[in-house]
Amino acid sequence: MFEDSALATVLLAMFAGAIRVSTPFLFVSLGETLTEKSGRINLGLEGTLVFGAMSGYAISYHTGSPWLGVLVAGLCGSCFGALHGYLCKLPKVNDIAIGIALMLFGTGLAFFFGKAYIQPQAPRLPSISFGFWTDMPALRQALEINPLFLLGIVLAFVLWWGLKNTRWGLTVRTTGDSAPAALALGINVNQVRLLSTMVGGFFAGVGGSFLSLYYPGSWTEGLSSGQGLMAVALVIFARWNPLYCFLAALLFGAAGALGPALQSIGISRGYHFFNAAPYIMTLLIMIASTSPKRSLKGAPGELSITK
Amino acid sequence: MVDVTKADRMAVGQGSALADTLDRFRRSSEFVIMPILALIVSGLLFSIFLLALGKSPADFFSLVWRGGFGTSFSWQNTLVRSSPLIFTALCVAIPARLGLVIIGGEGALVLGGFAAAAIAIPMIPWAPSFLLLPVMALAAIIAGGIWIGLVGALRHYRGVNETIASLLLFYIAVSILNFFVEGALRDPSDPNKPSTMPIGRDNMIGAIPGTDVHWGLVFGIVLATLLYLLMNRTTFGFAARITGGNLRAAQAQGLPVGKLMVISCAIAGACAGLAGFFEVAAIHGKANASLIAGYGFTGILVSFLARHNPLVIVPVAIFLGGIAASGGLIQRRMDLPDATVLVLQGLIFVVLLVSETFYGRLPFFRSKGDL
Amino acid sequence: MSKFELNRRSLLKSSAAGLLGLSAAGLPRLASAAGLTAGIVYVGPRDDFGWNQAHAVAAAALKEVPGVTVVEEENVPETIAVQKSMESMINLDGAELIFATSFGYYKPFVLDLAAKYPDVQFRHAAPLWTDADPKNAGSYFGYLDQAHYIDGVAAGLSTTTNKLGFVAAKPIGTVLRNINSFLLGAKKVNPDATVQVIFTGEWSMPVREAEAANALVDAGCDVLTCHVDGPKVVIETAESRGIKCCGHNASQAPLAPKGFITGAEYKWATIYKMFANDLAEGKTLPNFTGGGFDVDFVQSTPYGAGASEAAIAAADAARADVKAGKPIFTGPINKQDGTPLLAAGASLDNYDPSLDQTDYLIEGVVGSIT
What we know:
Chain B: GO terms for molecular function: transmembrane transporter activity. By secondary structure, chain A is mostly helical.
């Protein structure tokens, strides 16, 4: 039978894991794609993610509305984005360094104010059941899908289409590829970057609220374990293409489910390496897919990390 | 920037040697006064934060002073915490001279500590400590050096972003440590904290006489000085700085950019590896998951605050060590959470980076000739 | 007798519940404990619904004892930082009694400080103290596997698939012992029960804990329990998947209003208050204090909505048995690889020192430790 096959169990678990775990990666990497397309890198999204997780949880707890929590998490994220965007426009201020500083600052603030919310239980986001057609419990569970995941897919398409075909997409891309060219076209470079970083921060905040309000669904200090930073890595991996961001996030989520899934069918030897699978996989793909000779396809020309 | 050029001198005119010196002094003082100003600004901002929470900034800063620097115990507390930070900050500072941002020094620390403990296992029964410790240190240097050297090589030869690669390698380093420590190299006599075999009390590095600060601090200061000389007084350092300033120009001049990157990263990794060695040889006596204590990540902060200058890293590490040392006292006396220290560190970091923008723009620090 | 003191070596010879005393050296500075300051160091956040919270609850109880001041520090890693935190409590706060609550604090940090500050009493929360260690140091421990055994009994009667799930942090002695006892409890009432275990590799890693919990449910487990620092995520995941769960370390009952059966909890307050009272009366503190239900060092969380009548009755009976000293480990028991641990008729005392050295899982546990 299908259910009896160990391989099927693992594949199903990875499929379910991809859907459950990928959403924060998806949101943060979409936000970072937009920011990087405008020519800046924001490593501070890890701090934004953690702060988003905390603030979303806190608001959901106080108001009883998890969706309001998601919104506030996004707004907090855009505040961090605004801070990053504003500071980086000052001469001689390095965007990578500011990002690292904001990562520390955002995490610190989240832990500081988050102490009061480790204990309480906040209302969580609902899910939509797409598994009504099957009577396999595991598959049915895998198809319990959070609306944010669907929203993320839509967003990936919108961003992909928008960057390519709309006027603001062109503006963002021009700013990211060559600031002098953008200036010549009368584009306010700093403002475009500020807005792109703010929108990127909004997405990262929403991604964080998914962690605390849906999966795993509570606020603790160890909640993120570097997911915001990994999402920034996924952007390079996804070649600044929002659709690839979606695939990369799915792949990363699936790889993360590999360790527990293998143990559930009795393979535990070397489980540390299976747990590190997402990182090993990302590194290998980055090594295989990059080249020192030509700059990466899709890479914004102004981006400090690709120079 | 500090150098007084010929044109400047001429512009100053035929002023006395004293005026010249004063002028020069005033302009160099920018590099001391600006960070201090930035610290004061961070302190003020943090005071506002505390006041908003109804806590007293005066209490806070006097506790930081008392817990970090006020008594001889506090000083030792501070120094012992700053020792690993010097090494891990060097791991960020050296590649930074080439324009590389390495954030995975923690991985090199973990692997360095693990390599040191692992190579010690077969030697413990027979080797005297004067042989054992150098071999352990060498193993740590090699392991850490290879780990971050790999990051440099990937960057140059494959174009893989070094910031991300070093972070990924940190996670992988942790899984390597856990795999061996919970598996093949586990000390069977300790079922509850998976660790390698202890190297033994007698083999461990002791404290500087009269204190309980281990010798790692002294080694850290010596290493920082040596690396300062390397980066500022040798052809290697000069070439590295040119590469950091403009990669394409360096390539056009025929500098061996790839070699420079790999060697700088390897040196950086060796520094972090040594941090791991001292954790094993002076603190834990064995390798286990306690090696993952975040020193590598705090080192990033230290290096940036020191503007990647190896000599400045030492006082900055001591300063941050002091803040960390006072963290406990702040928790106990002011009923503030442990994250308070993180908030303060983050704030200082942001303000110091922003202060970069004011260098050369405040009239006081400018030569009269520039005005 | 409300408490007992035991020496692990003499326990080998003593078949009774180990009521052999071993006293510490004198406490010159503490002839009167008026104004005793106790310092407590935690490895994680104090309100993690788990290990640290269990200690923090006891610290709060200790604060109620007249004349006792408690100073606390949380999120202190198992590095030189903990040595300095404890030393800072001694030097700057005048602490005379230190509770070091994380396993890795003992060697070398507590031992070093005990030698350096002979007038200060150090107590560490794991059964590690031996005769060779300083006399002003000591261990206290609650044998939580007894409560996991009770959880197992209740869980064994709550499962319909006969598959119980266990999310574990690392394959270390105390964790393995809890898993084994949990299975023994389940098997006592349900011989077909098995326990499937997944190790996350970290003490606190919420996303992976949730993944592990889901993987166990997908594998057919219908009761979950765990041994990680903060069980919040596992319990909430079990509840949201509509299955039952048993708690660990502290009370998680409010997290699972529908499926919570019962939980294995420490009751450190018993020990903390006992130490404070001993010092107040000028008595010497024991170097080794350990126990389970018999001395009120561990407890079961009050039954939740997931506990059936049958499960409650069986668990209550089993708890009375354990309290009376009836052994949990009674043969025949094989290790996972088939080698015998105990022959039929043989048994191990609940405080048998060999159990502190558990490095195996027993037959019936699915999932390996290598």
